[in-house]
């Protein structure tokens, strides 16, 4: 009889750093969370090659416009990795995507995610997906699928990055934007929950590299540790904004992300108009002062990198401002009239930030 072939000593996927069994276990752990992030239109189960969503929901629209957005969380993931706390990052991811969708008035329908890891740790991946699923529930959208990829050699064993894409729908004649804005409109600011998910390269440079602060350091102004403050989840405004469009007239929204209040509000201000915002109408949270003081960061630099306490802006007719504030208050959103839309002076910019912050 021929001899049994010797066991191969050749290269294997596992030896290259990819653990298929760990990936399978991660899928099993995340299933319970994905089930929680469904809508009636969700079709199929976790594990398919594509996520499915019943598009017959669009039949109730006369002219449905699909809106699409994609984003990540940036270097905030480095803080999560150092803290070994990962579910809030998933929440952040949803916020960054769905709050871009709602700016045009679109209802978020579904999301997909992409998680790239240096090494699959099933429990860690499940934590990230848990946060994504919980964020989808808060946003009113479904998590219909995603991908977890293991990239040894490209990322360290405990490193990862996340990205997501979302789809929403808005009736064509309800589309919000610059063409609806009129002189005299009120600029309503909605409070952020903190830094949200932008400017962390500056924050980490200032607090860790320059100031040498530890994540475990208790900060009296925060009433908690520095790490806990930095991982405060990004506020999800999508359902609040949609409620606003149902209860009062809204001309535009602006999601305040990278570029700050002025940079993002400028994206919805018509060329012949200007948004005049009074800094004196609010007090930025202590984390913004901390970054500015610890790094001797100029106010203009802070305002271009951080949201300074405003996460979303609504532009509404002046006569609708009271009703808008009442709706937001009923939903637990701290909001205030921060400025108004005026004609743009010769040589002026789209947005002017005036005065000093209230203290």
- Note the total helix count: 11
* CATH superfamily caption of the largest domain: PurM-like C-terminal domain
Radius of gyration: 23 Å
Mean pLDDT: 91
* CATH fold assignment of the largest domain: Phosphoribosyl-aminoimidazole Synthetase, Chain A, domain 2
The N- and C-terminal alpha carbons lie at a distance of: 90 Å
Q: How many individual β-strands?
A: 14
User: Which secondary-structure class do the elements indicate?
Assistant: alpha+beta
Widest sheet: strand ordering: 10-12-7-13-11-14
Strand content: 15-25%
Helix content: 25-40%
CATH class descriptor name of the largest domain: Alpha Beta
Explain how this protein is built:
The chain is an alpha+beta fold and 359 residues long. The chain has 11 helices and 14 strands. It has helices spanning 20-36, 76-83, 87-101, 122-139, 200-210, 226-230, 238-247, 260-265, 286-294, 299-305, 321-330; strands at 42-43, 52-53, 64-72, 107-117, 142-150, 160-171, 186-191, 218-219, 224-225, 252-255, 273-278, 310-316, 335-343, 351-354. Pathway: Purine metabolism; IMP biosynthesis via de novo pathway; 5-amino-1-(5-phospho-D-ribosyl)imidazole from N(2)-formyl-N(1)-(5-phospho-D-ribosyl)glycinamide: step 2/2. It is found in: Cytoplasm. It comes from Streptomyces abyssalis.
């Amino acid at each position: 009889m021929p001899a049994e072939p010797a066991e191969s000593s050749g290269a294997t996927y596992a030896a290259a750093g990819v653990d298929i069994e760990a990936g399978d276990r991660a899928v099993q752990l995340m299933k319970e969370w994905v089930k929680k992030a469904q809508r009636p239109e969700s079709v199929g189960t976790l594990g398919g090659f594509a996520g499915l969503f019943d598009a017959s929901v669009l039949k109730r629209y006369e002219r449905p416009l699909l809106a699409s957005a994609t984003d990540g969380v940036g270097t905030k993931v480095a803080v999560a990795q150092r803290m070994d706390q990962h579910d809030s990052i998933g929440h952040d991811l949803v916020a960054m995507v769905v709050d871009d969708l709602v700016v045009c008035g679109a209802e978020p329908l579904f999301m997909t995610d992409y998680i790239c890891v240096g090494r699959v740790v099933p429990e860690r991946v499940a934590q990230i997906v848990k946060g994504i699923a919980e964020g989808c529930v808060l946003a009113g959208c479904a998590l219909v699928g995603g991908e977890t990829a293991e990239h040894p050699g490209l990322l360290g064993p405990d490193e990862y990055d996340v990205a997501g894409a979302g789809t929403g729908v808005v009736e064509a004649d309800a589309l919000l934007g610059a063409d609806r804005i009129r002189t005299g409109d009120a600029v309503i600011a909605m409070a952020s929950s903190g830094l949200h998910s932008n400017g962390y390269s500056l924050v980490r440079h200032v607090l860790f590299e320059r100031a040498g602060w530890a994540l475990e350091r208790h900060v009296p102004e925060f009433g908690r540790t520095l790490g806990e403050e930095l991982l405060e989840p990004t506020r999800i405004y999508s359902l609040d904004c949609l409620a606003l469009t149902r209860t009062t007239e809204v001309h535009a929204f602006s999601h305040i992300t990278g570029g700050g209040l002025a940079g993002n509000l400028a994206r919805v201000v018509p060329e012949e108009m200007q948004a005049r915002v009074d800094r004196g109408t609010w007090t930025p949270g202590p984390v913004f002062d901390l970054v500015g003081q610890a790094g001797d960061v100029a106010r203009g630099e802070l305002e271009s990198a951080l949201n300074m306490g405003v996460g979303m802006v609504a532009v509404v007719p002046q006569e609708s401002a009271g009703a808008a504030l009442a709706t937001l208050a009923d939903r637990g959103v701290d909001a205030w009239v921060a400025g108004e839309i005026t004609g743009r002076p010769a040589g002026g910019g789209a947005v002017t930030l005036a005065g000093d912050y209230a203290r």
